[in-house]
Design brief:
Layout: E1 36-40, E2 49-53, E3 58-73, E4 79-95, E5 98-113, E6 117-124, E7 127-133, E8 136-143, E9 161-162, E10 176-177, E11 179-188, E12 191-198, E13 216-217, E14 222-223, E15 227-228, E16 236-239, E17 246-253, E18 258-268, E19 273-277, E20 283-287, E21 290-302, E22 305-320, E23 326-340, E24 348-359, E25 369-381, E26 386-395, E27 400-409, E28 415-426, H1 431-434, E29 440-448
């Protein structure tokens, strides 16, 4: 499952739980050759890769996806209904050694009850110019930069722009957006060197201020990761998003029994950390501090399963002391996961253990130790016309649960109709505890073209 960062007063890494939702066999940003299109077999534990060289010039435009979803809050937290409409278009072209892409997306959100709101937004997707040379490619423009191997909570995935507009209701690919970047990739044998510079900082896409999914609740005086505090009731909230995004280098090796890599990044995290400025009226400022992240990763196939691991050390993880002092501390994250198909059947199971430790000598409002078991079980049936799915989070250090059962009908080619539930519970500082009154039942439709 593929992210960890810190959320205001709350730990963005502690808010890693926000980003849980398994995606099978995540291989970020086509880790192969500069002129190759990769096809991965259905079962990652037995994946076979084939390549086909793209050589035809021209331009192709298409409507990528359309989605609609209606939801009803089950616990009557004030808000009663949730709705979302989404569409995306793109175009790609090629002329000799040059490629280009154009793309945009539209999202409309609505919430009924108290408070209620409607909001419509346009945003860019991938819009870039790419030059391909001998074992090299250079890409300028907005593009997807998603590093890491483990599913959903990759601690080295620090450059991507997080989409938090619907919290963790969607799986990882729908919760990452393109970023403005200059990217140079070099392929030397089985090694890939990936250097990225983010000249302009673009912060995470947050929910509407009145949304049930926003990490800050000023009416109840709560911040995700901290819990409730009287000083937070009625606080002002603003964002500080100036500056550039940072840069990083990742080196990976593939093609052997064990694929591995390491990376060094100095970046600003797209998710905000809410710095608490007390006063006559408390102010919460969403800051995005720079920090170093040094990470290692590996992937292998053993005993009928695909095993993935990542470890990352961070230099400047923001925390808040119990006297509301803002500090940055060192932190360590470790994630180990396995994906397998029991009995060599069609059922797919992904399990992952994740842990976080902040090294601090001060008592903080943030959690300094966190551990989870996360996973997904997916089973197709009726000749693939139906699919049952369960995603979950279980806290191992504090009580925390998230359950997402889903039943989808796929009887029309390219379309999916589904019913799903999102159920939260847990202690006050956890994801499940913060959203424990936001249990949601939803009906949805999706079409991919």
């Amino acid at each position: 499952m593929k992210r960890w960062k810190r959320f205001g007063g709350l730990s963005m890494l502690g808010a890693a739980a926000l980003l849980f939702a398994t995606v099978p066999g995540h291989a970020a940003d086509d880790d192969y050759g500069p002129d190759e299109e990769v096809v991965v077999a259905k079962k990652p534990a037995k994946a076979k890769r084939t390549t086909a060289r793209k050589s035809r010039d021209g331009f192709n435009a298409k409507f990528d996806v359309a989605r609609a979803e209606l939801g009803h809050f089950l616990d009557d937290p004030g808000q009663s209904g949730d709705a979302w409409l989404h569409g995306a278009v793109s175009g790609t072209g090629r002329s000799g050694d040059l490629e280009y892409a154009l793309g945009a997306r539209f999202d409309a959100y609505a919430q009924t009850g108290t408070p209620d709101f409607t909001r419509a937004r346009l945003d860019y997707t991938e819009n870039y110019l790419r030059w391909r040379g001998d074992g090299m490619r250079l890409t300028l423009g907005t593009q997807n930069v998603l590093w890491g191997r483990v599913d959903e909570i990759s601690p080295i995935d620090r450059m991507s722009r997080v989409d938090l507009s619907r919290l963790n209701l969607d799986k990882l690919p729908e919760r990452r957006r393109a970023v403005p970047a200059a990217r140079l990739e070099r392929f030397v044998g089985d090694y890939r060197i990936d250097a990225v510079w983010l000249p302009v900082f673009d912060a995470a896409v947050l929910p509407h201020a009145d949304s049930a999914w926003h990490p800050v609740d000023t009416r109840g005086g709560r911040i995700l990761g901290i819990g409730s505090h009287p000083a937070l009731v009625g606080a002002r909230v603003r964002e500080d998003e100036h500056g550039s995004g940072g840069a990083g280098v990742r080196v990976t090796h593939g093609g052997g029994d064990i694929d591995f890599g390491f990376s060094v990044q100095r970046v600003r995290q797209s998710l905000p950390y809410y710095r608490i400025n007390p006063g006559a009226r408390t102010e919460l400022v969403g800051v995005h501090p720079y920090g170093w992240t040094v990470g290692g990763e590996l992937e292998t196939q053993k005993a009928g399963a695909t095993w993935r691991m990542e470890m990352a050390w961070s230099s400047d993880l923001p925390v808040t002391t119990r006297t509301f002092q803002y500090r940055t501390e060192r932190a360590l994250d470790l994630v180990i996961g396995a994906e397998f198909f029991p009995g060599d059947a069609d059922t797919r199971v992904t399990l992952q253990l994740a842990g976080h430790r902040t090294f601090t000598d001060q008592p903080t409002l943030d959690r300094d130790r966190m551990a989870w078991l996360t996973g997904e079980i997916e089973h197709p049936f009726a000749q693939g016309r139906w699919r049952a799915n369960l995603r979950f989070i279980a806290g191992l250090d504090e009580r925390e649960y998230y359950w997402n059962p889903k039943l989808a009908w796929l009887g029309i080619d390219g379309h999916e109709f589904h019913v799903a539930a999102h159920l939260y519970s847990g202690d006050a500082q956890t994801l499940g505890g913060h959203y424990r009154r936001n249990d949601l039942l939803s009906l949805g439709w999706q079409a991919k073209f």
